[in-house]
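Thread: Newbie trying to understand structure tokens

Hi all, I'm a second-year student working on a class project, and my supervisor (Dr. K.) asked me to get a predicted structure for one chain before our next meeting. I've only ever worked with sequences, so writing a 3D structure as a token string is new to me. If someone could post the tokens and maybe explain what I'm looking at, I'd be very grateful. Here's the chain:
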Amino acid sequence: MKEILLIVLANGLVNNIVLARFLGLCSFMGVTNKVDSALGMSMATTFVITLSAGLGWVIYHWILVPLGMEYLRLLSLIMVIASLVQLLELFIAKQSPALYRTLGIFLPLITTNCAVLGVALLVLDDNLSFLHSVVFGFSSSLGYSLVMVIFSGLRERQGNASPPLVFRGAPINFITAGILALAFTGFAGLAG
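---
Reply by user tm_fold:
Sure, no problem. This is what the structure looks like when written as tokens:
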């Protein structure tokens, strides 16, 4: 149980997939205009990251390794991720058309989100067990979700402010993201 708690804290805070590993920055900057859209994208990405970490582990260890086809690892992970995103897209379009319209192009782009593929590859590279792989994927996606919601809240607050003209738009967003990343590095000090 202690190992699982350490994996959750390490991936959610210390080794955050966005702020420490710099994966998933396109959705981090693109979907965080409003908290609602960031929360929807976070839930969708949590689903895909968690399942792709688990399914990727199963396919690699139960199919590719016994057949001596480890070189197909990347291709199999991409296929798993693309399939999960398609299922998710169909589900969201049917269950929540408003969320589907809000997420727009970013929903199918989860397929190319480097955070999703990065977590699935990290699980295999770290040679984790199945349970630890699923926990790793889930906790990484929780860290992703936490950062997405915090950053979207900060961006909504920026909408009420009037920074100098030079800083409006992308510059103030990058400055805010940098300060947020610095704040998360404080968690590394707590772990050490």
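A couple of things are worth pointing out once you decode it. The chain is about 75% helix and 0% strand. Residues 55 and 80 are 7 Å apart (CA to CA). Feel free to ask follow-ups in this thread.
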